[in-house]
UniProtKB/TrEMBL annotation:
Protein name (record): Cysteine-rich receptor-like protein kinase 38
Protein localization: Membrane
Protein's membrane topology: Single-pass membrane protein
Residues annotated as binding ATP: K367
Primary site of residence: membrane
UniProt cross-references to Pfam families, sorted A to Z: PK_Tyr_Ser-Thr, Stress-antifung
InterPro entries xrefs: GNK2, GNK2_sf, Kinase-like_dom_sf, Prot_kinase_dom, Protein_kinase_ATP_BS, Ser-Thr/Tyr_kinase_cat_dom, Ser/Thr_kinase_AS
Annotated organism of origin: Camelina sativa
Signal peptide: 1-25
């Protein structure tokens, strides 16, 4: 009964979590129609062809016209460049599909996975510098606020105050940026720990026009969707949204508003004061009741604190804004059918991975750590705390955790296509990996590392990048996983020395194995090994007896036979481009740490055929294990050093899709 009650209490949080995933979009088609292959369609297609690049190069807002066709595009100010590009291109595809022959079209798109929002508008007349309140797309949350346990009158007052603060921030004409009308507020309500609100207008209208547009959006939400657990309204001149989770991007400049001062009343023992009738009773009884409850609450709180000293409390990221959910163990048991063997999708030295389904239908991956696995409290906390603060499309998303009793469990988004090693090292599945797909996977991994090294508000060294730690989603987009051994750097720190070496032999840079020195360049080395594996279609362990894949590729390069290592299943029409990637891979695995490129430089090289690339020097490799690693398990570590085992046996994950 106790577990059942806990499950019911957790369910409302689970429903909230369902809104974290998927693309929310709305479109509106108006006006007259135009014939297929008309000049209007050709001109619109011409404007669409460069629109995503134009909007990012112009600071997130762009309008253009061509012979009677007017197009306007807009990305929310906290966007990341690639996220904005993808969002605009999705909106274009929606218009081409749903408004294929309509003169006027408007599509507003929001992807919470990438924390980006945008819209695209097409008309046959200029809308620039004209406030446009319609058409509008509406996106109310399907989840209602539980009014039986919430004081909605108090909530309304706090919500209205938050609207005023956000509106004030959004309508200030700073005139310093292209997207000048913008405000994001995070507030603590009495009944809700975190409430988020965002308002933004296009920069071509005045401050008063912006305020009017946003006020109309707020009023419409109040009258039509009040009681919903969040929602948004998108108009051609302004965007309004609020929710109970951080939906904005990592670059948002968030104003934080603390909760209003109130007496501490433990929720489990709170008595609703509104039930006490009459002013005289309230005056005398309420203070007495509050004092008694405060005393009881402090005693119980002290007891709970003592019992939970060894557990991780819920963490909130100021940079990424993601709230971490502590899952109830009973909910995990229901989602995985008591960790049934049929739901088991992975097994490793750390424990097992299970597929689960939450009550709302969301699929999750549950990583259950076993006792004595070697992945202790430090690694568990490390992964939770780091992934709380990291948000990127090429990083696996940690949804929450559970640490009840002896259980330590991590809950991730479910990635259906397993890990990269199950494709690239499999004779049959490798046939599915065309060069274009391999190109996209390599570039995605590179972007994920760049985010860790430079673009996030933290500076992270992963330290265990390998093919088995790159997961593939339903569209074969790569997501870097397993942050148990990642290290947080100061922004001005360039390298560090560790007392023990952790990671996977064959992917670890020589200076790390031999001298325990690591930096962002050790991740670059690991990336170079993965890149070469993607090109050859063979695991580094196949070359381990001959000093490893980097040394073998370098030997072939020097002999002028680099093309011989290209996977035979790849189309030879792409040989020139593949040779450029081999060149880049060899630059990443150079023995000389200083000569290895940064990930930002790697991404430039990957995306351009015209940039001059320096010649590589000798590749680094490790011929012997360091003395402190020799012992009873040394032979096993060497044998599986390219992806089947790790020095600390933390990162072994054999996944298979279901």
């Amino acid at each position: 009964m106790k577990n059942f009650t806990a499950i019911l209490l957790t369910s409302s949080f689970i429903l909230l979590l369902q809104t974290f995933h998927g693309v929310k979009a709305g479109f509106n088609c108006t006006g007259s129609s135009f014939p297929t292959n008309s000049s209007y369609q050709k001109n619109r297609d011409s404007l669409f062809s460069t629109l995503s690049d134009k909007v990012t190069s112009n600071g997130g807002f762009y309008n253009a016209s061509l012979d009677g066709v007017y197009v306007l595009a807009f990305c929310r100010r906290d966007y990341e460049r690639q996220g904005c590009i993808d969002c605009v291109e999705r909106s274009i595809r929606q218009i081409e599909t749903s408004c294929s022959n309509r003169v006027d079209s408007f599509n507003c798109d929001s992807d919470d996975r990438d924390r980006v929002s945008c819209f695209v508008r097409t008309t046959n007349h200029s809308t620039y510098r004209l406030p446009e309140f319609g058409p509008a797309t509406l996106d109310p949350s399907p989840v209602a606020i539980d009014t039986s346990t919430k004081n909605m009158t108090l909530f309304r007052q706090e919500w209205d105050a938050m609207v005023n603060r956000t509106l004030e921030a959004a309508t200030v004409d700073t005139s310093t940026t292209v997207l000048k009308y913008y405000g994001v507020v995070r507030a603590e309500f009495t009944e809700f720990p975190n409430v988020y609100m965002m308002m933004q207008c296009t920069p071509d209208i005045t401050s008063d026009e912006c305020k009017k547009c946003l006020q109309e959006s707020v009023t419409y939400f109040r009258t039509q969707f009040w009681g919903r657990q969040g929602g948004g309204i998108c108009r051609p001149s302004c965007v309004f949204r609020w929710d109970l989770y951080a939906f904005y991007g990592a670059f948002a400049n968030v104003t934080r508003v603390p909760a209003p001062p109130r007496a501490f009343i433990p929720r489990a023992h709170a008595i609703s004061v509104t039930r006490l009738k009459g002013g005289i009773i309230a005056i005398f009884v309420v203070p007495i009741v509050i004092n008694i409850l405060v005393f009881i609450g402090l005693v119980k709180a002290y007891s709970r604190i003592r019992k939970s000293n060894n557990r991780i409390n819920e963490q909130q990221s100021d940079s990424g804004g993601q709230s971490m959910l502590r899952f109830d163990f009973g909910m995990i048991l229901i989602a995985t059918d008591d960790f049934s063997s049929e739901n088991k999708i992975g097994q490793g030295g750390f424990g097992s991975v299970y597929k689960g389904i939450l009550p709302g239908g969301q699929e999750i991956a549950v990583k259950r750590l076993k006792k004595g696995s070697g992945q202790g409290d430090i690694e568990f906390k490390n992964e939770v705390l780091l992934l709380t603060r990291l948000q990127h499309r090429n990083l696996v998303k940690l949804l929450g955790f559970c640490n009840e009793g002896d259980e330590e469990i991590l809950v991730y988004e479910f990635v259906p296509n397993s890990s990269l090693d199950h494709f690239i090292f499999d004779e049959e599945k490798r046939l599915l990996l065309t060069w274009n797909m391999r190109f996209r996977i390599i570039e995605g991994v590179a972007r994920g590392l760049l985010y860790l090294h430079e673009d996030s508000q933290l500076r992270i060294i992963h330290r265990d990048l390998k093919a088995s730690n790159v997961l593939l989603d339903a569209d074969m987009n790569p997501k870097i996983s397993d942050f148990g051994m990642a290290r947080l750097f100061n922004m001005d720190q360039t390298r560090a020395v560790t007392r023990k070496v952790v990671g996977t032999l064959g992917y670890m840079a020589p200076e790390y194995v031999k001298h325990r020195r690591f930096s962002v360049k050790t991740d670059v080395y690991s990336f170079g090994v993965v890149l070469l594996e993607m090109i050859t279609g063979r695991s580094n362990k196949n070359y381990f007896e001959a000093l490893g894949l980097p040394a073998y590729a370098w030997k072939c390069w020097v002999a002028g036979e680099a093309a011989s290592i290209i996977d035979h299943v790849l189309n030879r029409s792409s040989t020139n481009e593949i040779m450029r990637f081999i060149h880049i891979g060899l630059l990443c695995v150079q023995e000389n740490v200083a000569k290895r490129p940064t990930m930002s430089l790697v991404i430039q090289w990957l995306g351009s055929e015209t940039i001059s690339i320096p010649l590589p020097t000798a590749a680094g490799f490790t011929t012997h294990l360091p003395v402190e690693l020799h012992g009873t398990n040394a032979s096993n570590q060497a044998e599986g050093g390219a992806g089947t085992s790790s020095l600390n046996k933390l990162s072994i994950t054999e996944l298979s899709p279901r």
